[in-house]
């Protein structure tokens, strides 16, 4: 019975890997195909490598500027989400208060609000505050939209930290801020790494807010920059594949930097649970 169950798991994982890897392999092959070859043989191996696709994508879509804008917005958003989420979760979980549970419930309720529903109010508010076509006009909303999920994970993690650890700190005379900095933060680093990856990917792929807030080409993020491929360069699919492949590289690098944290967070969370 166990062997059959393991076979089923292996079959499911194999199918999942195929579903994930096949489009990625097709993207890599397509990025080095010429326009004519992509039309004639879209699924086969390229006869020669059209490396010029990467040069065209890099220059024509102004990807260096777009990737710099996206990196600034993403790193600022990740820092803001982890900072605000950890402080709020510590206050709700460790500082006993009657309003702690309602606040956590209110934040979790924010998960049910779609970004599209808040686009017009955010546009009006950003205009009134003079934040249109500024990075801060996107950073603040993305932090707000990613904060509820981060609080949900961090609060669950901190609830599993033994009370004796914080009680010993209180006996030594540590204040709440000292308990947070010296105990809660070091013990929560694995979950911070997991949240960093999830938040980075979410913000990197954010399109609607960037489209509404940013108006100038110099402020375009990666999704906005790559969106021009569909209009002006929609016929040259090799060019499109090359541009998309370039924009994936920072996400892969960020994952490689924090993947140990997310794996540690999952395993330790499972043990504590």
Architecture blueprint of SSEs:
Elements: H1 2-31, H2 35-40, H3 52-60, H4 63-94, H5 100-109, H6 119-129, H7 136-159, H8 163-171, H9 176-187, H10 189-204, H11 208-213, H12 222-231, H13 237-272
Helix pairs in contact: 1-13, 3-13, 4-5, 4-7, 4-10, 4-12, 5-7, 7-10, 10-13, 12-13
Keywords:
single chain, 273 residues, mainly alpha, 77% helix, disordered C terminus, 13 helices, MetI-like fold
Task: Explain the overall architecture.
The structure is a single chain. The protein is mainly α and 273 residues long. The protein has a single domain (60-272), classed as Orthogonal Bundle (MetI-like fold), CATH 1.10.3720. Helices cover 77% and strands 0% of the residues. The protein is built from 13 helices and no strands. α7 (136-159) runs antiparallel to α10 (189-204). The longest helix has 36 residues, at 237-272.
Q: What overall geometry do the principal axes of the alpha carbons give?
A: globular
Q: Order of SSEs, N→C?
A: HHHHHHHHHHHHH
In percent, how helical is the residue content?
Answer: over 70%
Q: According to CATH, what is the class?
A: Mainly Alpha
Q: Let me know the number of strands.
A: 0
Compute the number of structural domains.
Answer: 1
Kindly name the structural category.
mainly alpha
Quaternary status:
single chain
What name goes with the CATH superfamily? MetI-like
Residue share in β-strands: under 5%
Q: CATH topology, what is it called?
A: MetI-like fold
Distance between the termini: 27 Å
User: Major beta sheet, specifics?
Assistant: none
